[in-house]
Design brief:
The protein has 138 residues and is mostly beta strands. It has a single domain, classed as Beta Barrel (Lipocalin). The protein contains one helix and nine strands; from the N terminus they run H-E-E-E-E-E-E-E-E-E.
């Protein structure tokens, strides 16, 4: 009888634990890791309620695509390929993620964006000040 009571208490405890561990605590935040190297793919904005994106004009023709690398150390590296020889210029700064906000600080400039989409293959952000949407792909 004592064993049955222990098993019943254990079963009830596991049931309560399983129902209390839901994913609702995220408040819409994605759980995909943010760290990684992302290639600049598209830019755009919302016009008349429609998202309009074009291939990123920042990518120099004939060169590798510019990129954003977000490291575990909260270091942000922006890679820019430019010129006739596609020379790479890297600029280093920091980033902070707070829920679905991403703040990049490069030198004295800081910008905060909403993370619109974050998957294993894409990071889409929208600048809170300018409304510019930037799509990066892995």
């Amino acid at each position: 009888m004592k064993t049955r009571k222990i098993l019943l208490v254990l079963a009830l405890s596991l049931g309560v634990f399983a129902t209390s561990c839901s994913n609702d605590d995220n408040e819409g935040e994605t759980i995909i890791p943010l760290q990684g190297k992302y290639n600049l793919s598209q830019t755009g904005s919302i016009i008349n309620g429609q998202e309009v994106l074009v291939n990123a004009p920042q990518n120099a023709e004939g060169c590798n695509r510019d990129y954003l690398e977000l490291r575990l150390s909260n270091t942000a590296v922006i890679g820019d390929y430019n010129g006739s020889n596609c020379a790479l210029t890297e600029t280093t700064g920091t980033y902070v993620r707070s829920h679905n906000d991403l703040t990049l600080t490069i030198g004295a400039l800081s910008s905060t964006s909403d993370i619109m989409n974050l998957t294993n293959k894409e990071l889409k952000i929208k600048d809170k000040t300018t409304g510019i949407i930037t799509v990066y792909t892995r």
